[in-house]
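Let's sit down with a protein and look at its sequence and fold side by side. Which protein we use is up to you, so please pick one and set it down. Label the sequence line and the structure token line clearly, so we can match residues to local backbone shapes. Go ahead whenever you are ready, and we will take it from there:

***
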Amino acid sequence: MDIHTVKKMEKKAVKSSQADFLRLGIAFAFLAMVLWYAFAIDEGAPNHAFLAIAALFGAYMALNIGANDVANNVGPAVGSKALTMGGAIIIAVIFEASGAIIAGGEVVSTIKKGIIDPAQFASTQEFIWAMTGALLAGGLWLNIATKVGAPVSTTHSIVGGVMGGGIAAAGFSIVSWGTMGKIAASWIISPVLGAVIAALFLYTIKKSILYKEDRLAAMRKMVPIYVSIMAFAFATYLTLKGLKKVWPSIMDTANAILPFALEVTKKPTLMQGLTIGLIVAVITYIVVKPAVAKASMKLENTVKDANALFTIPLIFAAAMLSFAHGANDVANAIGPLAAVADAVQSSGISPKAAIPMWVMLVGAIGISLGLALYGPKLIKTVGSEITELNQIRAYSIAMAAAITVIIASQLGLPVSSTHIAIGGIFGVGFLREYLSTTTAQQRIEAEERQLEGDKQLKKTLKSEMKELKAKEVKTEEESARISELKILIEEEAEKIVAEKKHLKRAKKVKHVKRSAIMKIVAAWVITVPAAALLSAAIFFIIQGIMS
């Protein structure tokens, strides 16, 4: 290794270290500001110190949510090259924060998804210790998962943390095991639903556009329909999952504008969501159809150009998924912090707690910072390290994310957006493997027949040469034939070796990285118990210090 190469490596290492220290410095500055602000609130109130500690742990949790969970919303768009890494981070930061602040819940269940009974806590103090432990445990587990490159569920991390803290405080009877059973079932339900829906969309697009001889005509006809379906799904999804907080204001505004009165509801119903989705889909179709027709005039009859038409819808999907995630999941993730704040201020345990604006800002800013500082690693994992994505495959994954959440929420199934997105990626990857295997099977069989024929020819040539060599007296023609046979046998041997290698590669077509499957599934399975054990350990440490 020459001196110039060594210097380049040293320079690269120094630059990487400087970037790491800068990221760490920004994260610590954010945590310090949150700690300082929390200490300034209700100074002198009982358990005030724990509010500051819980705020610190909540900020740490938010940073790790940004580093891990948000990747699912923008990873496929980055992997398909519809968005650059920088563009994806900017969109996610803006829409995650907007979703949390504009449409985030005003109140949140203090006990995530009712997995433990708050009445069984011996005191408010123990409840605060358990929620503090849940926040730190959830953050630690997400940090570990991000470090190893495994996208895991924020919801399941918090669930495990709350469960572990509750068990440490009051024993196993505090847990609603029926609820936990549903959550465990979601480990299978979420990825399977995501995989099936994503695979169905991808197969439908292949049949209706990519497998057609005249792809341009198929694009003009089908792309507006697919974009309208996406608009319908996301409008319905956002109405049901992202507009709960502002829904009363929307209803009041609509009734003030419209010449007829709408039925006022506290939160959006399925029928209202579907109606809004249908209106948005019709408008989208009217706008997109001429735009696609115009764009197709500059395109060629290729798969690459068919993919290009899905670029803008994918950017839209990344933004909408981020907004919905901010509106729906941020409040849930910082629920334990809201619970601690409520318990400190009221000196009691409430089943529901208002989310102070400063708590929501901790979640929104923390997630945005975590994404900007540490998100690229998981974005790369989700976008390109599980299977190869293009715009159409990424579109199918985005559709799976929106539709699965709508179906699951109406059926009361506790699904994870992370598991759905990763399941969708697996779904398109395995569909590609199936289609590759199916379409290539005839070619493989033909190559196998060719290989057998070459083996038989080699055997025949060897037999002929053996017979000629066995003759004691050989004519010039026979001697020349022996020399010719040697050359032919060598050529056939080389040909057979090459055919075997090619056939072996053809039979091993893998579009999904197997090591990624094992790593991610293992992380999913141990998320709840790992977070629970961490939370219980933290609770006992706090209890020991405070005793």
About this structure: The chain has one domain: 3-214+301-438+510-546. DSSP finds 18 helices and two strands in the chain.
